[in-house]
Design a protein that fits this description.
Strand content: 5-15%
CATH superfamily of the largest domain: Vaccinia Virus protein VP39
Number of strands: 7
CATH topology of the largest domain: Rossmann fold
Distance between the termini: 55 Å
CATH architecture of the largest domain: 3-Layer(aba) Sandwich
Largest sheet: 7 strands, mixed
Order of helices and strands: HHHHHHHHHEHEHEEHEHHEHHHE
Radius of gyration: 29 Å
């Protein structure tokens, strides 16, 4: 999404491009201190050698089409500025405020139009970019591969591998199309089993179809379930995995408590979630509050909390060993703009779907707003991992 200032500069450039230096800065008749005019002074000066008067007069007299060009360019610039301001005003007003069923509906819509899957592949989460990849330029990296790399890095962060967890029962909370669930099933092996839960029936349908296509239908399962009220007995899973689902949870405490409840003693918990800055030391100012409100409401989030606050919720369950946390903003921030660029470089995912144009434009604008919020430290990318205490 282009910066508004860039659009304004383009509008100004349009005006300047239509006006030559002499037309713009040399008036046809400029008064001097003594009341004489530039044209008459120049004319007298030029007549000494019998030339220059007519030539200079022609240069300083704007032709009719030139005047029209100036006026037209100015009008175009004014219209561009006004239009940009109007569009920004519309885009800055969030369109998808959180409600009881908004998350499921939004993900159903993404599943239906296919645009998210076209560009993001099977994984509805940010990608991972190493320092070297960032130095070389993030656009050189395959956008979908970045998401697989994220899963690998998250597994390493949580101490999850095929040797230790080859027979693990895994719960993927907020599984999306099930890309991570299927990837974990392949990485851990056929003796492991992964269950993915989501609020979207269409994501369950698509996830199941892809599991059959990819030969992991026997050790994956997808089901519609509310993460705040899971239909699993206590101590059901060896691993509880949650990647970018906490953002949508209206009750963060219940979200954490449920995941801790279904995790087996000795089991591993690992979570990734967009988080807002801890404001206990530096309170949010009006700009911060305004920007957070937009981020809450444009992609149907109830609210965010800080890395520190999530860690406290985990500690407060009193069933977990010490929590390890991290902020992966540097490793993931490229995803926001990268996701815009893939749509620019390859428009086939949306160009033939005119009914989605407004939605795509709004999403691109929100992606840019997300980038800026993470860049300035208003938002952070939280990571948490811990093991559950063994029963005494």
């Amino acid at each position: 999404m282009p910066n508004v200032s860039v659009v304004l500069l383009c509008a100004v450039a349009l005006t300047i491009a239509a006006v030559t230096p002499t037309q713009a800065f040399v008036p046809r008749s400029s008064p001097t201190r003594h009341g004489a005019t530039t044209s008459s002074s120049s004319s007298n000066s030029g007549s000494r050698n019998g030339r220059g008067s007519n030539t200079l007069s022609t240069t300083l007299t704007a032709l009719p089409w030139q005047s029209l060009a100036v006026k037209g360019a100015a009008a175009a610039a004014t219209a561009a500025v006004a239009g940009t301001a109007t569009v920004k005003l519309v885009l800055d007003k969030p369109s998808r405020t959180y409600g009881d069923d908004t998350v499921a509906k939004e993900y159903d819509a993404w599943a239906d139009d296919g645009i998210l899957e076209y560009y993001w592949g099977e994984h509805i989460h940010l990608g991972y970019y190493s320092p070297e990849e960032m130095r070389q330029g993030y656009k050189k990296k395959n956008f979908v591969q970045a998401k697989y790399d994220f899963i690998d890095e998250m597994m390493t962060f949580g101490g999850i591998d095929a040797t230790t967890h080859s027979k693990a029962k895994v719960l993927d909370v907020g599984c999306g199309f099930g890309g991570t669930s299927r990837y974990l099933a392949k990485k851990l092996g056929s003796d492991a089993h992964v269950t993915g839960i989501t609020l979207s029936p269409k994501q369950v349908q698509r996830g199941t179809e892809l599991a059959v296509e990819q030969g992991v239908a026997d050790n994956t399962r997808f089901t519609v379930m509310d993460a705040l009220q899971m239909d699993f007995p206590d101590n059901s899973f060896d691993i509880v995995w949650a990647c970018e689902s906490g953002e949508h949870m209206p009750d963060k405490k219940a979200y954490i408590s449920e995941m801790m409840r279904v995790l087996k003693p000795g089991g591993t918990f690992v979570m990734a979630c967009w988080s807002q800055r801890d404001d206990s030391e530096t309170p949010f100012d009006q700009r911060d509050k305004r920007d957070l409100q937009y981020l809450y409401e444009e992609w149907t989030h109830p609210y965010f909390i800080s890395i520190k606050d999530f860690r406290k919720l985990i500690d407060d369950t009193d069933v977990m060993n010490p929590v390890t946390t991290a902020n992966w903003v540097d490793e993931t921030i490229a995803s926001w703009r990268h996701s815009i660029w893939v749509g620019v470089f390859d428009p086939r995912g949306w160009i033939f779907k005119p009914k989605t144009y407004v939605k795509c434009f709004r999403d691109a604008y929100c992606l840019e707003r997300m980038h800026r919020a993470f860049k300035r430290g208003l938002m952070e990318y939280g990571m948490w991992t811990a093991t559950k205490k063994e029963e005494s």
